[in-house]
Amino acid sequence: MPHPSIVWFRDDLRLADNPALRAAIERDEPVIGLYVLDEESEGIRPLGGAARWWLHGSLRSLGERLREKGGQLVLRRGPSARVVTEVVKDAGASAVFWNRRYGGAEREIDAQLKTALREDGIEVASFAASLLFEPWTVQTGSGTPYSVFTPFWRACRALPAPRAPLPEPREVDGGSAKVASDDLDDWQLLPTEPDWAAGLREAWEPGEPAARARLREFLREDLDDYARTRNEPAAGVTSQLSPRLRWGELSPHTVWHDTIEADGAAGRFLSEIGWREFAAHTLFYHPDLATKNLHREFDAFPWPRLKPSHLEAWQQGRTGIPLVDAGMRELWRTGVMHNRVRMVTASFLIKNLLIDWRLGEQWFWDTLVDADGASNPFNWQWVAGSGADAAPYFRIFNPELQAKKFDPRGEYIARWAPEYRADTAEEPPEPIVDLGESRKAALDGYEAVKRASRS
Ligand SMILES: Cc1cc2nc3c(=O)[nH]c(=O)nc-3n(C[C@H](O)[C@H](O)[C@H](O)COP(=O)(O)OP(=O)(O)OC[C@H]3O[C@@H](n4cnc5c(N)ncnc54)[C@H](O)[C@@H]3O)c2cc1C
């Protein structure tokens, strides 16, 4: 009588370099892949709309690929701990493997489940797969977590190099046990009324094969220009790997090793992967990252009463500020936005519209296909000034100067917000705020933060 092993897939929707899958295969028992859509467990943040769209495509691809290799992917919905325990029983499984995740609520669920399953005599093991460096292995001399990127990354680079990626299994024995699975379509992850995902379908093909193809293309065609033009949104040289890494269609180990093989001097690109590590490190030590100012003196910032019309204008890309509007429309259409423009649009929301960073973070959470529980709040706090190694609060991006510097020919703006082109007859909208006055109001607000930090 076989006793299958369950591989619980989470943020690692891939077959290659998947240590949990490999451990299951090495046990020489049938392997059952499981994905749990958990919108109920305490503290788990429900996925945003664009993320749900991506998840659908990525799960479909993973299921097909597992089936091609002889395996199966069981889909279930509900609180993870309960569902995993049920599937273990249904399948008569004797082992459960997963790759680690780093959010507070997620870690709590995993730790409790590990204990409970072991008490029932089930073998359980978790693996390092989604980060190059486990957060607890990177510590300052005095044993505390890092709060500044440069020494953090230096410390990472001084550790043993990330392990080589594991090869994709040739086959997966799914066994003969029939375990009930939901139908992916019944989860209704795709938007229907209205179907706003046309731009996402045009821009992306979720799934591991497309992820690997993009990595190869990036290394071949764009890496050389990356360091020089990565800040220019019209240049199109960045890797576009963020949703791939977010959903684990590619492991950071694969990205790391393939990059070094392509160009041993690709330090600039690798240090961006380092920022992803730093965001996860920060979340690990500050599980409230999405809701609480990391530097608590920022709680004293006197946010004025919210003007919903301003928030809406920002969300819809109708602020009258060309680079901001272009960025917000790129986001709505494609589910991503160039990093430089993310910084500018976030700074404009916080420091010109004087809207709490958490409302901007939530909008990005809903609209980004790479919406990440660590990187999104980490970067919002970085822009707000309240976060780890943050931009100083008095650094307020001027979106017009930023456009001159990083989109000098106006190509990016023309692509996403054509009404601002010089050669159009259209009347461009008026800015909804005066950049100079609103900047001054923000600086006044930050005086309260300064006072709070002194008291
Ligand atoms: C306000 C704001 C919110 C953001 N929210 C997210 C988010 O939810 N998810 C997300 O993956 N990134 C987020 N970022 C970081 C960054 O903008 C994106 O990772 C990047 O634009 C993705 O494009 P790329 O893959 O072409 O990046 P590349 O320049 O090719 O970089 C390679 C990889 O490095 C990582 N990376 C690069 N910059 C950062 C960074 N600043 N922080 C963390 N990781 C980084 C990403 O995984 C990226 O795919 C945010 C940045 C800002 C300013």
From TrEMBL:
Residue numbers binding FAD: 226, 238-242, 269, 370-372
Protein family membership: Belongs to the DNA photolyase family.
Pfam families registered for this protein in UniProt: DNA_photolyase, FAD_binding_7
Required co-factors: FAD
One example GO MF annotation: deoxyribodipyrimidine photo-lyase activity
InterPro entries: Crypto/Photolyase_FAD-like_sf (IPR036134), Crypto/Photolyase_N_sf (IPR036155), Cryptochr/Photolyase_FAD-bd (IPR005101), Cryptochrome/DNA_photolyase_1 (IPR002081), DNA_photolyase_1_CS_C (IPR018394), DNA_photolyase_N (IPR006050), Rossmann-like_a/b/a_fold (IPR014729)
Organism: Microbacterium pygmaeum
Superkingdom field: Bacteria
Residue span, Photolyase/cryptochrome alpha/beta domain: 3-132
Gene Ontology BP annotations: nucleobase-containing compound metabolic process; response to light stimulus; response to stress
Cofactor note: Binds 1 FAD per subunit.
PROSITE patterns xref list: DNA_PHOTOLYASES_1_1, DNA_PHOTOLYASES_1_2, PHR_CRY_ALPHA_BETA
Site positions per UniProt: Electron transfer via tryptophanyl radical: 303, 357, 380
Stated name of the protein: Deoxyribodipyrimidine photo-lyase type I
Xref: PANTHER family: CRYPTOCHROME, CRYPTOCHROME CIRCADIAN CLOCK 5 ISOFORM X1
Record's keyword terms, sorted: Chromophore, FAD, Flavoprotein, Lyase
